[in-house]
Design a protein that fits this description.
heterodimer; A: mainly alpha; 15 helices; about 0% strand; globular; B: mainly alpha
Chain lengths: ~300, ~280
Amino acid sequence: MKPIRVTADTDLQWKDSLTTESSLVRRLLIAAAFFYLTLFLFIPLAAVFAEAFKGGMAAYVGSFLNEDALAAIRLTLLVAFVAVPLNAVFGVAAAWAIAKFDFVGKQILVTLIDMPLAVSPVISGLIYVLLFGAQGWLGPWLAEHDIKIIFALPGIVLATIFVTVPFVARELIPLMQSQGRDEEEAAITLGASGWQMFTRVTLPNIKWSLLYGVILCNARAMGEFGAVSVVSGHIRGLTNTMPLHVEILYNEYNAVSAFAVASLLTLLAIVTLAAKAVVERKMLSPIIVADPVLPVQAGSSR
Amino acid sequence: MRLMLKQPSVLPGFGLTLGFSVFYLSLIVLIPLSGLFVKTSTLSWDQFWDVITTPRAIASYQLTFGASMVGAIINGLFGSIIAWVLVRYRFPGQSLVDALVDLPFALPTAVAGITLAAIYSPNGWIGQYLDPLGIKVAFTPLGVLVALTFIGLPFVVRTVQPVLQDLDREVEEAATTLGANRWQTFRAVIVPELWPALLTGMAMAFARAVGEYGSVIFIAGNMPLKSEITPLLIMTKLDQYDYTGATALGVVMLVTSFVLALAINLLQWWSTARHMNQ
């Protein structure tokens, strides 16, 4: 890294020299940051893959090619396939109501949406056991009608939906609030139907954030452990999702297989982070051009 | 005058979207959560108090809250440094580091759990160097601290970073021009600006750590009275079909979460209010 020197030719460099530290302090701070990140990010990330490939490629692939692993992958995909679209629809609906209208009790609604983030995953599972479990409110009625929710697929789906409720809504609300209502109001005033306004004005405006929200929601849905662990019952081949399968393998001292399945989930996390970076870049440029507060200035200055 | 519950607007879909949102949230969040309190109300106060004050429960609170607190403080320090370095300096691989900071958010907790346990076990990548020094991390309370520090990492960075980005450098220039050295400027000009955001981030990391389960249980060893966190104690009670015990402890955790969420909201409000005054 080049130290910044005081030179007369650019104003910027001169200003920087007033508001930055000595080169030694800068190096120390960067070193401290990297030390911490290495300890808590780089080493764990590398360790997942190192442990997964410890037994060689054949053992790695073999970790996926058995009934239990395939059943876990199928179940995880199925749960996400139900939970993510539901929460995406909810997220768009809630963001529309909250961002585009002023009404009494809005703050309560926002707080409720955030609630699952504040609650321990174990509690997220517990509340469904209390509702639908054998000793729960609806337990006797469900048993009478031979409906299984806890220790079965519906419980896993419900717990996953609960945990992932906030993700799409939280991405969309601040964006839609900052975009304001002008464009939609114009569309409606010019005679567009509600659906036309949504597909031609709102959706194009929010598509990147919506996509990122969905990816985030999906990552959490596929990776949720605590809440699902409470309601699943850990029945192999039936109610084991991928994270639960990782736990079972690990507890059986089958580290290679545990980390192999974990590496798949880690790739999902990396894809999520990459998506975030891409969406942030996409969002940066159009917002500056189409600043809803200063449409005239933005147009004339270009 | 008619009571105005909603400001008039030409935009369509208010009734539909609000109705659906309220219905969905009631079904998924509100009714199940209130079930927890209803279940607790079947206990007498004495019963409730007995369940939540057993020595095992109290030991678990001490560990959970203590380790979460220390983790939040560690993240407060290093998170600020990382945010500072990311905003103020340029170095190779910067955008990669920036993106990776969110890894503890995105990584499934079970994956984090087994990975940290493997790294810090006596023959693991880091554990092998700590073991000869007599430092045992895996399967001790220290392991709980490591896991809770890991999952709290993004919070401070992501709350301090935007404030640092918006910080007006002219104030720092003025301080320097008026004769303050860099450390004085940092202490008297920059720190007061960052303080609310830093506290918010630490409170968020703390709140997240208190409820954490997946990343802790693999590295903790889970010995009652020693390295057992409260969420795990709830899980144990559930496995033993002690629903009342699990519910009582659940209420303690839930009330704590509410109080923390409220505190975070107040901190955020303070943070933005100060920001607006600039």
